[in-house]
Amino acid sequence: MRRGGPTSEQPLLVLLLPDRLEALPQRAPVEALLAAPGVIAVEPPRVPLSAMLAGIVAHRQAKRMRLPGVPHAIAVFDAHQIPLAGALITRHPEAELWALAGEEPQADFTFDVAAAPDLRPAWERMERLGVESGRLGSERLR
Prior knowledge:
Strand 1 (11-16), helix 1 and strand 2 (39-42) form a beta-alpha-beta unit. The protein is built from four helices and five strands. By secondary structure, the protein is α/β, with parallel strands linked by helices. It has helices at residues 27-34, 51-64, 82-91, 120-128, and strands spanning 11-16, 39-42, 70-76, 96-99, 109-110. The longest helix has 14 residues, at 51-64. It has a five-stranded parallel sheet, covered by helices on one side.
């Protein structure tokens, strides 16, 4: 898990990465998101899980995850991450589901980080959810 430095009760955007950060094609915009104080990343398991197994273990993973704050948004990059995102949202029902690599029918917010010229829509949505972006002035309110 990579951290942007949030405190224990701070609202979070949790990025469920589909691969190690270093291997992501959209690495630069993901790193820009991770620079925000309220954003953390969760890398996938080292041993890939089948879709069926991922669905079975997702609730256990979510329960064991020690997050440094309260998720207000859970972001996925592909459909394989939906079981874990769903399990996290079950534990944190106030959290939104975000799709960061194109359309996802059940997502509350869709934003393609690889295709967007800037991240302002994501920063604005974060701020509306109370997640500190470090970009739009939220850090001055504390």
